[in-house]
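yo, Group II intron reverse transcriptase/maturase is done. seq:
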Amino acid sequence: MNTDELEWALMKAERRVLEIQTKLHRWAVDDPHRRFDDLYNLVTDPAFLLVAWDRVRSNRGAKTAGVDGRTAASISLQQGVEGFLGALRSSLKDRSFLPLPARERLIPKPGSTKRRRLGISTIRDRVVQASLKLVMEPIFEADFLPCSYGFRPNYRVHDAVSEVRHLTSHSYEWVVEGDIRACFDEIAHPALMDRVRLRIGDRRVLVLVKAFLKAGILTEHGSLKESRSGTPQGSILSPLLSNVALAVLDEHFAQAPGGPASTPNERAKRRRRGLPNYRLCRYADDWVIAVTGTKEDAYTLKEEAAQVLSRMGLHLSEEKTLITHINEGVDFLGWRIQRHRKKGTDRWYVYTYPAKKALHAVMAKVKTICRQVNTNQPLDELLRRLNSVLRGWTMFFRPGVSSATFQYLSAYAWRRVIKWIRSKHRRMNWKELRRRYCGGEWWPRGQERDLFDPAKVRTTRYRYRGSRIPSPWPLAIA
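structure:
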């Protein structure tokens, strides 16, 4: 199959997959108690496998091999996409398919000396997981509540942050900052599969999901480790399964008195009686509970959350689960959310700006890049790598009160680049350095590009979307 034929086949496959996903989502919304049978034929459908292959191939991780040593590029060159997907479909149809263990890779955990475990599956397993996700995601999306923002189509980090800002601006002053200890490693398989069975009735799909959970991990030392709990972090299916597991927290606080299901009159009555009202906001395993009440009420809700999570085999980290007042500030998803007085006025507002931890992380990246790029290379190579990091970081934190942070980062990047240039030319005076590397000015510039200046990025305000986040699968066809 040549490139043009593959592109045309992919376009038709994507159209077919979207149509089927829309039907599955509509049926799941119409009947909250429906259990879906005969989904395995969709997982093995050529259109679903082709779309799954395209998503795996387009991912940055496609260049990383699993335990079989194969990458997406090597499969395309040696076996061909059509032959690979045909053989994979045959093994799924005759039920001979068996997932291979994930290859363990330990990476540094940002902001600490600890390391996070990633499980790198084979390309073959990734394609099957992606196909499973294409089938299962529209069904479970019908059940996920608006308070869940992580790893969901059309949902963003900024939506979760703006939700917390909105709540803390409207009397929800106490905040429980939840931290689940080793969430991806400790989810109980029986409890997770029980929740999957609420919606999936096809035994073949359930067996396949469980096989991925039990596939095991090949450690960096070459030993095989059994998977008795958890979902491998880095797996395509893991974000969806973790949302299925953690939805117990969403459902508990959504149904309890004082939660989002309460009417304004009911919440007003609770306040008059000295009872708390609260709202949960969760992004994957990072979550906060905003509370209208006292600090003691927040402690009670924290213990309540711990009991709910224990059903899934999860536990809170006592050291990292904090209870703070919005005037003291909350760190959430890299942002600092804090209420303070507006300069020159007596009015108090809740502001969002980059957290110190996020700023220190990008500064560490700038420092590392300046050390990694040898001084015998041209300045353009250094600027190319730095600009990518600085531009991406500032675009992420642009919707906030970030100008002062951007100016600080700009000054830091300038100092690191100037230090690099001076190390490159130790005997060059300032006048000559500015002439050759700053165009006679003060800002570093190479032959092809200038150093990206974070201070020139104009900040904006993120439009609060609330529960009006569109679904990729419309319930009604226009």
